[in-house]
Amino acid sequence: MAEDGYKVKLNVYDLSNGLARQLSTSFLGKPIEAIWHTGVVVYGNEYFFGGGIQSTPAGSTPYGRPMRVVDLGVTHIPREMFEDYLREIAPRYTAETYRLLTHNCNNFSNEVAQFLVGSGIPEYILNLPSEVMSSPMGPLLMPMIQNLESTLRNNAAPQATQFVPTPASVSVPPPAPAPEKAATAAPSSAAAKSEEPAPAAAAEKVSKEAAAPAPAADPLGSARGKVQEEVMREFAAIMASGTLRASEAAALAMRRVMERHGDGATMQQG
């Protein structure tokens, strides 16, 4: 009943499916519990930011079962008024305005919770970006994050400026920057090798093989370009399939590369 109010809950998901907890220490240099995604559940629906403002019947989002459910309180705001509010803020929540660190699904949930119940979502969820960026790997991730955001803004399909209470998939062509980057990265490496005299190259190879521990001494230096390039390729391939929204594709791309590098780090340590 409206006079009794409507319960408001926060569904909390781990986009890494446990990989963040397992691999974050080796990948980032500090433990991270999860890669958080959240949605606000009220009026029988779940509302979330995924390329635009989306809603689905509660329990039917593409994120599966939530890792936890947080009780945010009770609202007396009618559903019609709430959805008018969503239409009003929709221009601020599009693919073009999405920022992985400062304007993401969790920032949307926080704003919506404040509108509905007068208080936001848990701080540990909102603080995740600062935790990641304060890690040893954080500064190396920044160029990759900027490239992902640029790709999303330049290649994502235009979003409607009105709230639409049904999920909408985003289908876009593969982003151009990734193949160009791959095409320029490989020749630069090949050119460096071709300019080097053969005897010197052979001597360098023998020297590197003799000093096997040397590459492991600075894993972040060599990982920087590789991680960024791999994530961009994964992101392009996922978006080309047209099955996921851009924000989900970015998270999945990061998860896949994170898993590969985490496995590599585990093998080196073993």
Automatic annotation (TrEMBL):
<dbReference type="Pfam" id="PF05903">
    <property type="entry name" value="Peptidase_C97"/>
</dbReference>
<dbReference type="InterPro" id="IPR042266">
    <property type="entry name" value="PPPDE_sf"/>
</dbReference>
<keyword id="KW-0645">Protease</keyword>
<protein>
    <recommendedName>
        <fullName>PPPDE domain-containing protein</fullName>
    </recommendedName>
</protein>
<dbReference type="GO" id="GO:0008233">
    <property type="term" value="F:peptidase activity"/>
</dbReference>
<dbReference type="GO" id="GO:0006508">
    <property type="term" value="P:proteolysis"/>
</dbReference>
<feature type="region of interest" description="Disordered">
    <location>
        <begin position="165"/>
        <end position="223"/>
    </location>
</feature>
<keyword id="KW-0378">Hydrolase</keyword>
<feature type="compositionally biased region" description="Low complexity">
    <location>
        <begin position="179"/>
        <end position="217"/>
    </location>
</feature>
<comment type="similarity">
    <text>Belongs to the DeSI family.</text>
</comment>
<dbReference type="InterPro" id="IPR008580">
    <property type="entry name" value="PPPDE_dom"/>
</dbReference>
<feature type="domain" description="PPPDE">
    <location>
        <begin position="6"/>
        <end position="146"/>
    </location>
</feature>
